[in-house]
Amino acid sequence: MTEREIAPYEKFLLTTSRKPSQRTRSFIRDLVRVIPWSFHFTRGTCSLNDLTDELATLGINRMLIVHEKKGNPSLVKFFKLDDNSLLERDYRLRIKGIALSRELKRGRAIFTSDSKFRVINRCTSDFGEQLYTMLSIFFNYERVRELPRDPSFKGIAIVLSDTSDTLITLDFQQIETKEMIGPRISIMDVYLGKKGEAIRSLMNLVGIGKRRAKKRQEENYPKE
């Protein structure tokens, strides 16, 4: 039995649109090396129906498809297998740019069946909060603000950060060593669709959006 077969989280598939560039293929390989319990499937000429059959055979019900523009990853679509039907989720990520792990001189992840997966949000923007909530809903992982201080805690973290040019940077970190690993992704937009209403409602329920709006107002109109 392999580590992936005894994984405590749901496995998911990573693939591309048809005829991907070498850079997009390298990007997918980078992601698989840092995200526990993810699998790369070489799509080739497979249709969505073929991908549905592949997911059913592998016993996986979640999938990400990376599309490209001018040879670079540009869009991520999310899918879920439900009663043998492949359904696209109504949210997408638009990618501004990527840096591959070899370009950043970063290593790959080390994970075992005991490894955990966390999404760490260090953003102060609503954009970051929406992305944070959306990723947590799709992957069903625990939402936290900082890495655990327990030295025995092991795993991989997705770390979200604001940039000065209104983008969100997505990095990966080995929790036990604090080492940055894998690729870096710059995200320019999150299309939320109908799911966005639920996400925004959740944000308002816990007061996130209101706090952000109040903070921006205070920054723009400081007290005299």
Your description of this structure?
The protein is of the alpha/beta class. The chain has one domain: 3-Layer(aba) Sandwich (Rossmann fold). It has helices at 22-34, 48-58, 101-104, 126-139, 193-205, 208-220; strands at 12-16, 38-40, 62-69, 72-82, 85-99, 116-121, 143-144, 155-162, 168-174, 179-191. Strands 2-1-3-4-5-10-9-8-6-7 form a 10-stranded mixed beta sheet. Helix 1 (22-34) links the parallel strand 1 and strand 2 (38-40). Helix 4 packs across helix 5. The longest helix is centred in the middle third of the chain and has 14 residues, at 126-139. Mean pLDDT is 81; it is low at 1-8 and 209-224.
**Biggest β-sheet: strands ordered side by side in the sheet:** 2-1-3-4-5-10-9-8-6-7
- Spatial shape: globular
Separation of the first and last Cα atoms: 66 Å
Order of helical and strand elements: EHEHEEEHEHEEEEHH
* Helix amount: 25-40%
Proportion of strand residues: 25-35%
Largest sheet: 10 strands, mixed
How many E-type strands?
A: 10
Number of domains in the coordinates?
1
What is the C-alpha radius of gyration, as a whole number of Å? 18 Å
For the record, what is the CATH homologous superfamily label? Brix domain
Ordered list of secondary-structure elements with their pairings:
Blueprint: E1 12-16, H1 22-34, E2 38-40, H2 48-58, E3 62-69, E4 72-82, E5 85-99, H3 101-104, E6 116-121, H4 126-139, E7 143-144, E8 155-162, E9 168-174, E10 179-191, H5 193-205, H6 208-220
Parallel strand pairs: 1-2, 1-3, 6-7, 6-8
Antiparallel strand pairs: 3-4, 4-5, 5-10, 8-9, 9-10
Helix pairs in contact: 4-5
